[in-house]
Amino acid sequence: MSRVALVTGGAGFIGSHTCKRLAEQGIVPVVYDNLSTGHRANVKWGPLVEGAIEDKERLAAAIRTHSPECLIHFAASAYVGESVEDPGKYYTNNVAGSIALLEACRATGLGRIVFSSSCATYGIPPQLPITEDMVQLPINPYGRTKLMIELMLGDYARAYGIRSVALRYFNAAGADPEGQLTEKHDPETHLIPRALMAAAGRIDRLDVFGDDYATPDGTCIRDYIHVTDLADAHVAAVNYLRDGGEVLHANLGSGHGTSVRQVLSAIDRVTGRPVPVQMLPRRPGDPPVLYADTNWARQRLGFRPQLSDIDTIIATAAPSFGLEVRS
Ligand code: UFG
């Protein structure tokens, strides 16, 4: 019998890259998505079930029809700024949506979940690199929704035996090295795509939010992780649960930090196109430095990022914006 995973949000950026890697490892991805931010064209490796995350009956029916061994739960709203302005949307889509999903799992006896969590659950970390046992004090509603879902997953494991892996992503970036998928967000707010849009002349310039941080070059430092490396970690998590693994929380990052200026230099180096910039004040809610300790994911999931050096991330993302890569 073939292996199947039900992938909520599988038409989105990280979800679609994960579907590709699942299919390449012999696991059929059944996408469950309402296409509100995902794209139908991203669903290439298995069937699409159109449905809302809060529709428990439809989710349960999809589980009964396709008999997945595991549910991979990406479907969520994921803009930090919007979550501050419209928290109701985030508590509804993310928290209430996840309750519906957990209840659908209970109703159908599906006992394995891989969940998209975030480094946003840590808030401003007390020290670096960030380890999984550090206190989680998120500083915005988005991060709080992700933390609440992690806590719910723990309770559902204890009470109902639903085992889960919560993967705390750092900054997902890059795109499928074979060019079958691209990064498409609307609106686009993330640094690397916006900087590439500026380098390609699709927007006038990149706004850099703050160059007066206490970092070596004054700009914020983040841990950029290639989306295909993230995708591989999801396949590893599905296998970990199949093999009887217990509830796990794991950071997924490259393990090192890159500043905004270093990202801009990499774009210039890789594409030969300088990024026109305008310096602006700090963006509210931006932690100055975030990067992951990834030892836990290495040990428990065999996580070994292959594509997450900044030049490779830029080289795989650049073609989506019509930019050539220097050989
Ligand atoms: N930045 C700019 N200009 C831009 C966009 C971003 O200077 O136009 C800067 C930001 O200030 C930040 C860095 O580039 O210092 C990275 O910003 P992103 O918006 O690309 O990513 P964030 O680190 O803000 O957000 C990411 C994920 C979120 C997650 C968050 C946790 O996208 O889902 O990390 O802090 F919640």
What report would you give on this structure?
- The structure is a single chain.
- The protein is of the alpha/beta class.
- Helix content is 38%, strand content 17%.
- The chain is built from 10 helices and 13 strands.
- The strands form 4 sheets. The protein has a 7-stranded parallel beta sheet, with helices on both faces.
- Helix 6 packs across helix 8 (260-271).
- The radius of gyration is 19 Å and the shape is globular.
- It starts with a strand and ends in a 10-residue tail after the last helix.
- The model has no long low-confidence stretch (mean pLDDT 97).
- The structure holds uridine-5'-diphosphate-4-deoxy-4-fluoro-alpha-D-galactose.
Ranges with pLDDT <50 over ≥5 residues?
Answer: none
Oligomer: single chain
Main β-sheet, in a few words?
A: 7 strands, parallel
Strand order of the largest sheet: 3-2-1-4-5-6-11
Cα separation of the termini: 44 Å
Specify Rg, calculated over alpha carbons: 19 Å
- Amount of helix: 25-40%
Strand-residue fraction?
Answer: 15-25%
